[in-house]
Amino acid sequence: MTGAPHRASLREAYGRALLELGERDARLVVLDADLAAATGTGEFARRFPKRAFDLGVADAAMVAVAAGLALDGRTVFAGTNAVFAAGEAYNFVRQSVCFNGANVKLVACPSGLLVGLDGGTVQSVEDLGLMRGLPEMTVVVPADAASTRAATFAVAERGGPAYVRLAGEPLPDVTAGAFELGRAAELRAGSDLTIVALGALVHRALAVANDLAEIGLSTRVLDFASVKPFDEPALLRAARDTGAILVLEEHSVLTGVGALVAATTAENYPVPVRRVGVPDVFGESGEPWALLDRYGFSPDRIRDEAWELLKSRGKVS
Amino acid sequence: MGDEVPPEVLDSLQRTAQEVRRDVVRMTYRAGSGHPGGSLSVVELLTALLFREMRLDPERPDLPDRDRLVLSKGHAAPALYSAMARRGFFSVEELRTFRTLGSRLQGTPDRRRLPGVDASTGGLGQGLGIAVGLAIDARLDTRATRVFVVLGDGECQAGGTWEALLAGAHHRLGNLVALVDRNRFETDGATDEILEIEPLVDKLRAFGWRTVELDGHDLPEILRALTGARASTDRPTAIVAHTVKGKGVSFMENTHVWHGRAPNREEAERALLELGVPPAEVDL
Q: CATH 3.40.50.970 occupies which residues in chain A?
């Protein structure tokens, strides 16, 4: 081990990617809803003031305006906290963006429990369920700055609606930019167990895999940053090769990727699956990483869940 | 730029409006569902737009420089489809497919199925925001495109409409015109009994819009207001059009009952007779 990996801001990576995209594409437009500091679009607005619009605390209108701007093919990035982007504006996302096939990229930052101190009202742990249920929507949850950069370029290139969920807290560099729409990134090879993780939990999955390696257990870690399109082949390969899957997501267990993993394996190649997600409750105020521990994502809890799966496969006793 | 409308043009527009009303009755009767009341009330507004004011080419519905129309009250689709068919976007015969499985003429407008529809709508309170986006889009590209959006008065109760009104004024969208079909009734009853929106014109003015109040069945008045709106460079225009819900069919007028109910055969026949269809030609 070479010590803790460098942590970097996802919103800054997004902001830098936008600058490059804005240079390349003179028609690209960026919208905010009074949270421009949170979404990291400040530099874009300074460089391209005519192509940056802050719509104020009017999330629904921001989404409809984004759709109108995008109907003739212009690429529009529109950002705000996940609870507003996916929740407040839900039917605007559904009708004005998705039903219209508008080329709008919603960027949800901050998101999830990691919103932290502001409390449960503004910690969306339901957004992925809402967004991945929408026809034509692309949904991505990058795990670090490099993946954020790659994902921003990827959704810009792919026409049509997208939802990019970004953690508001800096995250350790873990992906080396390995991001591709529709492909899970295998960040670690392994044969005894698979951990499917996304976003802020990918680095915890890697840490647990490291711990297990020390006692001779081999864990595959798949970064499912591309939630939709979903890499079903990679999931089923993992089911066949390792026989057990642990899912880590900073999202409600009811409607998140864990539910998708369980359903997909049950239909195609049933293996034991355990889901570590936010239980069916709202969050609360707290220091972001302490909140994650409190809601079930502590390294100890993750190790326990992994252990249960390994036991059920007879790999440990 | 045109100013006084020649009498023969006005005559032709009035005949078109009457044809559209008849189509609305036939379409909702055949479909056994739909929204005749709020379709009949917007007929002159849509006729004035599609047949006179808007720059468009039915042969080239994707022309970048065309004007845009968002029917925010998407449930008035029968009136829109009829006006589009009679303007030459597709055959009048196709109106028979309204609301049938596989039709391009969905219950509410779908831009991806029907070329010439500029935005898909249905859920209320979203169309004005889309129109604001279209208007900014045109300005960014320095296109002369104007954007027209037709709102119901019921959807002036929706928060999204008011968010978009703020945005339209803030961004000084002189190329944007909102037409409010003020027919005074919504699904559950009279708008002023359910959730009062008056004084609507004062509110719109206070929100920074140029306002015009007129009789929404008076074509010369509508055309004058639309022409007048061309001169606005830095303020969007709101036209509050006082209309009669169910206009032209006596038993559908001024009631919420026909908001979302289709006529049966006997009712449709009566309606067509009232709309001047000769008895021998009442063909359902």
A: 9-172
| Residues of chain B neighbouring A70 (CB-CB closer than 8 A) | 133
B236, B176 contact by CB (below 8 A) = yes
Strand partners of residue B210: B237
Fold adopted by A185-312: Rossmann fold (3.40.50)
Mutation site, B111, B118, B126, interface A, largest A CB count within 10 A: B126
Residue B1 lies in a domain: no
Number of folded domains that form chain B = 1
Residue B121 to residue B129: CA distance in whole angstroms:
11
**pLDDT tens, position by position, B189-241:** 999 999 999 999 999 999 999 999 999 999 999 999 999 999 999 999 999 99
Domain A9-172: state its class.
Answer: alpha beta
Alpha carbon distance A315, A107 (integer Å)? 41
Q: Is the pLDDT of residue B175 over 90?
A: yes
- The closest CB to that of B133, out of A69, A94, A101, belongs to A69
Residue B108 is assigned to a structural domain of this protein: yes
CATH code, domain with B110: 3.40.50.970
Round to whole Å and give the CA distance between B203 and B199. Answer: 6
pLDDT tens readout for residues A157-191: 999 999 999 999 999 999 999 999 999 999 999 99
Specify the residue for token string 């759709």: A67
| Omega prior to A110 cis, within 30 of 0 | yes
Nearest-5° Cα angle at B87, B84 to B90: 60
Q: What ranges make up the beta strands (E) of A93-234?
A: 104-108, 138-140, 162-165, 171-172, 185-188, 193-197, 219-223, 226-228
Residue B98 belongs to some domain of the structure: yes
Which of B112, B135, B166 comes nearest A58 by C-beta? Answer: B166
Of A67, A91, A94, the CB nearest to B133: A67
Rounded distance between C-alpha atoms, residue B216 and residue B179, angstroms: 9
pLDDT tens for chain A, 317 residues: list them. Answer: 456 789 999 999 999 999 999 999 999 999 999 998 888 999 999 999 999 999 999 999 999 999 999 999 899 999 999 999 999 999 999 999 999 999 999 999 999 999 999 999 999 999 999 999 999 999 999 999 999 999 999 999 999 999 999 999 999 999 999 999 999 999 999 999 999 999 999 999 999 999 999 999 999 999 999 999 999 999 999 999 999 999 999 999 999 999 999 999 999 999 999 999 999 999 999 999 999 999 999 999 999 999 999 999 999 98
Per-residue pLDDT tens for A100-145? 999 999 999 999 999 999 999 999 999 999 999 999 999 999 999 9
Q: What count of CB pairs under 8 Å joins A to B?
A: 101
Q: Which domain holds residue B20?
A: 7-281
Give the ipTM of the model, two decimals please: 0.96
Of A27, A68, A70, which has the smallest distance from its Cβ to B131's Cβ?
A: A68
The neighbouring-strand residues paired with A195 are A221, A246
Is residue B2 assigned to a domain?
Answer: no
Closest-CA distance of chain A to residue B203, Å: 18
In this prediction, residue B1 has a pLDDT band, given cuts at 50, 70 and 90, of: very low
Write out the residue limits of the CATH 3.40.50.920 domain(s) in chain A. 185-312
Residues 27-56 of A with CB under 8 A from B: 27, 29, 50-51, 53, 55-56
